[in-house]
Predict the structure.
Amino acid sequence: YQMALQRTLKVATHETGHMLSMYHCTEFKCNMCGSNSLTETDEHPLWLCPTCLAKVHWGTRTDPVARFKKLENFCRKHGFQEEADYYKAARNRWPSK
């Protein structure tokens, strides 16, 4: 169940990035990296790199801290501990207003 959900989320969020006019990432290992196989998809994280993250936040005008909190909660609910920890750390690193 978890692996199928994680793969679905990776593909869905990656393709949503393309819908927001984002190209494949070549700067970091992130969700917007290109994949030519299931193995490559599994190697990529669910989260975005700083460059791709900036594009999403600029394009959608979302509050990064609120978004990270929602993502952390979702990941904890579904047993994605590594991802939840990442989003918590990202939220804590974000400069306060």
About this structure: The mean pLDDT is 93. Residues 40 and 69 are 27 Å apart (CA to CA). The two ends are 39 Å apart (CA to CA).
